[in-house]
Write a structure and sequence with these properties.
- This protein is mainly beta.
- The protein contains no helices and 19 strands.
- Helix content is about 0%, strand content about 70%.
- Strands 10, 11, 12, 13, 14, 15, 16, 17, 18 and 19 form a 10-stranded antiparallel β-sheet that branches. Strands 4-3-2-1-9-8-7-6-5 form a 9-stranded antiparallel β-sheet, with no helix packed on it.
- The relative contact order is 0.17.
């Protein structure tokens, strides 16, 4: 029997600070994880007040190792045009289903995390979600804001009909246009090794490279239980490029990327 989890990833980023809060429901329990530039915390037995919505969040949590309090508001959300899972949304029994709630929006407010003040004035936000029973055994994920845009891409080893395949989902929001990279459009992983992923889809090629990680441990679901340890860099040094027919549409390096690379082997 597979057990269930449902979680959301709520990222807030200013010019100098990054914070992501991950509320989740799993096996009838509730938890909140927090990751910043400096560390990560997991509150599995909630004791405090908290509220999350598409319009913002308000939190007061106090544990032995985490004091978290504050309120932020979200405005001008940018949802994707349609479900990121495409036709796979109708496939039963998938171990994990992804959703993108907003690729880029405005964040205003403040949080206090163990005495450190996080201020968000006309800052940037991103929200996604996952539900199912387990994360893929191997996967890579990245998100990054950049001038005029926002990008998200994930690739993972997906069990399907007794076998496996490498699935890809991604959105590049750039110059008021949405580019969709996905297995259901023919996207293919041509490299997944050494912190780098190279994805091709028709005439397009997308490359993401983790240059210097600043990872912290987070909990991830296995059969509905948050017992797996993964590592995320909420704010790290990475490189991205996107091209069509060999012509570069954009390429940049940043020290504001978010990255998880949970691949042990090489594709």
């Amino acid at each position: 029997m597979h057990h269930y989890f449902c979680g959301w990833y709520v990222k807030c980023q200013s010019d100098t600070q990054t914070m992501a809060i991950i509320p989740a429901i799993h096996e009838g329990n509730r938890s909140i994880q927090l990751i910043t530039d400096e560390g990560a915390w997991n509150v599995s037995h909630l004791c405090g007040n908290y509220f999350f919505s598409r319009n913002g969040m308000k939190i007061q949590l106090h544990t032995d190792d985490l004091d978290l309090a504050g309120e932020v508001t979200f405005s001008h959300l940018t949802p994707v045009k349609y479900d990121i899972m495409g036709p796979f949304r109708y496939v039963p029994f998938m171990e994990c289903r992804h959703s993108v709630i907003s690729m880029r929006h405005r964040v205003d407010g403040e949080m206090h995390i163990n005495g450190v003040h996080y201020q968000f004035d006309n800052a940037l936000g991103y929200i996604e979600g996952d539900r199912g029973y387990s994360f893929p055994a191997e996967y890579a994920w990245t998100h990054c804001f950049f001038e005029g845009g926002s990008l998200m891409l994930s690739a993972g080893n997906i069990p399907f009909c007794g076998g496996h395949f490498t699935g890809v989902i991604g959105v590049i929001l750039w110059q008021d246009r949405e580019y969709r990279l996905a297995t259901y459009f023919g996207a293919r992983v041509v490299k997944m090794a050494d912190g780098a992923m190279v994805i091709t889809q028709g005439s397009y090629q997308f490359t993401a490279k983790l240059i210097e990680k600043r990872s912290h441990p987070l909990c991830a679901p296995v059969n509905g239980h948050m017992i797996r340890t993964i590592h995320e860099s909420a704010c790290c040094h990475a490189m991205y490029s996107f091209s069509k027919n060999g012509q570069i549409l954009f390429a940049f390096e940043t020290d504001r990327a978010s990255f998880e690379f949970e691949y042990g082997g090489e594709i």
